[in-house]
Amino acid sequence: MATKEDLPSQGRDAPAYQEFAASMMARMSYRQMSLAERGLLYTLRNECWVNRKLPCDPAKLARVLGYLVDDIRSTLPGVIEFFEVQGDVLLCPELENYRHYQDARRE
């Protein structure tokens, strides 16, 4: 049986993040979201996993996501608590922490 020291590094980011659905669904803030907010939340999380960050300006974010800016402006306030604004970008601290954990395990 191979140990982790025997496994070659692919030099790539982890292709996926693991999430327990019950953990998210148990959050009161998630349960109070509209369907549109839930959709935006997971769209932003998936984008952050792949691209690490997104523009926080609603017009730029709408362009990146391919949605109407009015839809982003009206929905973003309901999901922003899951993200961190750093300058002009949005980050998902939960996913970044998971990414660092995966990197440490790989090392």
Question: How would you describe this structure to a colleague?
Answer:
The protein is mainly α. It is built from six helices and three strands. The protein has helices at residues 21-25, 28-31, 35-51, 58-65, 69-75, 93-106, and strands at residues 54-55, 84-86, 89-91. Strands 1-3-2 form a three-stranded antiparallel β-sheet. It is globular. It starts with 20 loop residues before the first helix and ends with a helix. The model has no long low-confidence stretch (mean pLDDT 87).
Topology summary:
Layout (H helix, E strand, L loop, with lengths): L20 H5 L2 H4 L3 H17 L2 E2 L2 H8 L3 H7 L8 E3 L2 E3 L1 H14 L1
Antiparallel strand pairs: 1-3, 2-3
Task: Tag the structure with descriptive keywords.
7% strand, 107 residues, mainly alpha
Order of strands in the sheet with the most strands? 1-3-2
By DSSP (H or I, 4+ residues per run), the number of helices equals 6
Q: What global shape is seen?
A: globular
Tell me the span between the first and last alpha carbons.
Answer: 19 Å
- Uncertain ranges: none
Q: Which structural class matches the secondary elements?
A: mainly alpha
